[in-house]
Each structure stands twice: as structure tokens, then as C-alpha cells.
Specification:
284 residues; alpha/beta; Alpha-Beta Plaits; Rossmann fold; 2 domains; 7-stranded mixed sheet; 4-stranded antiparallel sheet; globular
Length: 284
């Protein structure tokens, strides 16, 4: 479907939905979806609006430009995206490949509108997977004192390839502050635990030793604060008393695949709005 996705946030006030709907109707647009959320505690309004523009009475760009008057009157921040659309995406990996394979599989099925520009690894373990998928693989040395130079190489690749989204698919490196700031809101990570619990190394061993009854994974935006960015999606599996630490790892991998797939899908379909340290998510 040819159309537009509008994301908007503004101070909560009377008649926002009616004003946006009226603007769309005035130009013969058709509202396909109108998802909204009001944060009463902070007096904020958020919305995702999907618009069919096939019978629009004006040019699409004129429709977009004309929204400025309404947007400013609402004291809003807004963003339009044309549909259909594929987001240019780079996937960063180390050794573990289950999240990478999940992304490749779902992309092949057409579930996620992304174009994978490259797979970048600080190890070459996943190179064969990239080559089989016909995607360029870049091995970046990052051991010891090569780490800073490695991140600069990754930055150059992202800029050169005009990457819009970077996915850390079990990329086992801590991103420097400058990298997080430059690509703020454009990096998604999958963390192999149910944040905020079990932060750091060996989360499944930590969980096993604590006798947890659920194990999970968290997909979140990356910030300079380690594993503390806005959470997009979480997945959880039930743990039984007879499960071993190895069983928890298996359940965790299942959780990671599901959480990262949904997290990417929500982001590329403009179903997320970052507000302070929270992600407002309009699920599909």
C-alpha cells in the first residue's frame, strides 16, 4: 500500500485526535490505523497514524509540508515516513549466530522491511553465514588497543553505507560514549537476560544460582549507560525446577530470537517513540 506513517508527540490537550483526523480527511486521505497513548503523569500525548494516500487530493509532499501549520499549533514533534519502505540496516555480531540467523530468516520471509547492507563482526565466525546469504561481511579487529580504531572503522562503514539502523545481534563489545551519542535512537541491542536483573557476564549462571522461575531476554535501544537504554520488547519463558543452566541457555536463546525480531519490526515500522528513558511502543 502506498501511504505515510506519521509519528507525533506533543503536550496533551483537547481535540488532538480530531484535528489530526480532520487534516487527513480534508485531503481525502484514509486513516488505516490511529494508535495513541496519553501519559497523564507527564501530560504528554503520543500517536502513530497510518495513512492511505492512494486517493490523496494533493501531492504527497504538499500534504507533508502542509502539516507544519497543525504541528506547530499543537507544539508537536512529528515525523513522516513513506510506505512502502525498507530501512537500511547493519548487523553487528561476535561469535553467537542464532540472532543473526533469525534476522536473516525473517527478512527473507518479508516480515521485516529492512535491507541488510552488511554484517560486521569483531570475529570472523559468522562470515560463512553472511556469504551464504549474499551479504558483505566486514571483519574488524578490536582486541586490546585496537578497540577504539575498530569502532572508528565501524562508524565509517555505517556512514558510507547510509545505515539507518544498527542491530547488535549478540555483539559482545561495549560501545564507546561518542558512538552511542552519534547514533542515538538508531542502535538496538539484544541482552541475554531479563533486565534489569542479571546484568553483566554469565547471566544464565546467575539466574540458575538464584533459582529463577522465569528466564527472558530484553531488546532495547543503546545508550551510553550500559544495558540501561529504553526497552522496546521483552520475552520470557517458564523455568522448571529440573532445568539446568544449559536448559536456561536454550530457553534464553529462544527468548532472544523472539525479542529481537519484534524489537526490530516495531522500530522499522515506526511503532516506537523514545521519550526520556522509556520507549512508547504501539505493537502490531
Amino acid at each position: 500500500m502506498k501511504g505515510l506513517i506519521l509519528k507525533v508527540d506533543c503536550p496533551d490537550q483537547h481535540g488532538i485526535v480530531a484535528k489530526i483526523a480532520s487534516y487527513v480527511a480534508d485531503y481525502a486521505g484514509n486513516l488505516v490505523e490511529f494508535s495513541q497513548f496519553t501519559d497523564a503523569a507527564n501530560d504528554k500525548f503520543f500517536a502513530r497514524v497510518e495513512i492511505d494516500t492512494s486517493k490523496l487530493s494533493v501531492e504527497v509532499q504538499d500534504f507533508i509540508d502542509g502539516f507544519k501549520t497543525l504541528g506547530k499549533s499543537l507544539d508537536a514533534t512529528w515525523h513522516f515516513r513513506h510506505q512502502p519502505y525498507k530501512m537500511r540496516t547493519a548487523v553487528l555480531v561476535t561469535k553467537t549466530d542464532h540472532c543473526l540467523n533469525e534476522i536473516l530468516w525473517r527478512t527473507k520471509l518479508g516480515e521485516m522491511p529492512i535491507e541488510i547492507t552488511s554484517i560486521i563482526g569483531n570475529r570472523d565466525v559468522c562470515q560463512a553465514i553472511a556469504e551464504k546469504a549474499g551479504i558483505p561481511f566486514h571483519h574488524i579487529e578490536m582486541d586490546g588497543d585496537k578497540k577504539e580504531a575498530g569502532f572508528k572503522q565501524i562508524r565509517e562503514l555505517l556512514v558510507e553505507q547510509k545505515v539507518e539502523l544498527t542491530v547488535l545481534a549478540r555483539f559482545m563489545q561495549i560501545l564507546p560514549d561518542w558512538f552511542c551519542q552519534e547514533f542515538s535512537g538508531k542502535i538496538i541491542n539484544i541482552h541475554h537476560s531479563f533486565l534489569p536483573a542479571f546484568i553483566g557476564a554469565n547471566p544464565y549462571r546467575q539466574a540458575y544460582e538464584r533459582g529463577v522461575k522465569f528466564i527472558g531476554a530484553t531488546c532495547h535501544y543503546v545508550t551510553a549507560d550500559l544495558d540501561a537504554g529504553p526497552i522496546i520488547e521483552q520475552e520470557v519463558k517458564r523455568v522448571q525446577h529440573f532445568h539446568t543452566a544449559k536448559d536456561l541457555m536454550r530457553l534464553g536463546r529462544d527468548s532472544e530470537r523472539d525479542a529481537i525480531a519484534r524489537g526490530i519490526r516495531y522500530h522499522v515500522n515506526d511503532r516506537t517513540i523514545i521519550h526520556n528513558n522509556r520507549a512508547i511502543v504501539f505493537p502490531d
